[in-house]
Write a structure and sequence with these properties.
The structure holds two protein chains of two kinds. By secondary structure, chain A is mostly beta strands. Chain A is 0% helix and 43% strand. The chains are: A mainly beta, B mainly alpha.
Chain lengths: 102, 88
């Protein structure tokens, strides 16, 4: 991935149960300091997503690394950035600390 | 996800995506496009730049199934053809 150039990545989610599940995901970036350079243009996160029983679905993320990443001396040794997602089951009345996004 | 209480260190603050959420491809209509893209990645040694055409084809197909999303999509096309992200 080249800083400044948009890139596409895929995750896959499966609902292994026999009931539909409504989930919300949030993400994490490692190393921590690289997170400020990670920009998502579009993804599946922060919105409730419904997966039917046994459903398996591709989850795309369209993103770019801020070109300033290449200028930051603290990032000079970083050649691997890991993006991970965690899916939470959306429960009534249970509010995740989501950023202001509706 | 880190759940350790690290007093004195900044916590990671997730940001929402610039253009919102993708419609999910629940019916697998775009799977062929995704496979084509993934094959390109494998063939190129996972070089993202080499596979931008196929990435765009996937995104076009995904958005074609969601007319409302097209409002945001034109910007994506412009971004991809310029090979530069929009400066915020």
């Amino acid at each position: 991935v080249v800083p400044g150039e948009t890139a596409l990545a895929f995750y896959k989610a499966k609902n292994p149960t026999d009931k539909p599940i409504i989930g919300i995901s949030t993400y994490n970036v490692i190393p921590f300091e690289a997170g400020q350079y990670f920009n998502k243009i579009q993804c599946f996160c922060f919105e409730e997503q419904r997966l039917n029983p046994q459903e398996e679905v591709d989850m795309p993320v369209f993103f770019y690394i801020d070109p300033e990443f290449a200028e930051d001396p603290k990032m000079a040794k970083v050649d691997l950035i890991t993006l991970s997602y965690t899916f939470f089951e959306a429960k009534e009345g249970h509010k995740l600390a989501l950023p202001g996004y509706q | 996800m880190s759940t350790a209480m690290n007093f004195g260190t900044k916590s990671f603050k997730p940001r929402p995506p610039d253009k919102g959420a993708f419609p999910l491809d629940h019916f697998g209509e775009c799977s062929a496009f995704k496979e084509s893209f993934m094959q390109c990645l494998r063939d190129s040694g996972y070089e993202s730049s080499a596979c931008r055409q196929r990435a765009m084809a996937y995104l076009e197909q995904l958005m074609a199934n969601e007319p409302l999303e097209k409002l945001g999509f034109k910007d994506l096309i412009d971004e991809k053809s310029e090979a530069k992200p929009e400066k915020l």
